[in-house]
Amino acid sequence: MASRRLELVAINLEDLEVNDLGMDVRVRETKSKSDLIKAVVFSHNEYCPVKVAGD
Fold first, then answer.
1. Most exposed: 4, 21, 31, 54, by fewest CB within 10 Å?
2. What does the H/E/C string look like for the chain?
3. How far apart are CA 29 and CA 42, in angstroms?
4. Mind listing the pLDDT tens digit of every residue in the chain (55 residues)?
């Protein structure tokens, strides 16, 4: 499911949670007024944004 730009720029640091598989990102949807958790998985290389954020 795609997110609106407004929803993505509203993500705060506390909306990010690094786990063993990657990162969960909480996106507050403006249209449905609900929270959606999106997962970002590790790519296991030096360019992985989740790995850099978790270090």
1. 31
2. CCCCHHHHHCCCHHHEEECCCEEEEEEECCCCCCEEEEEEECCCCCCCHHHHHHC
3. 24
4. 677 888 888 889 999 888 877 788 888 887 787 888 887 766 666 766 666 555 5
Count the domains in the chain. Answer: 1
Range of the domain at 32: 5-54
Both tokens assigned to 38: 């999106």
3 vs 12: CA distance, rounded Å: 15
Tokens describing residue 51: 């790995």
Q: List the structure tokens of 10.
A: 């509203």
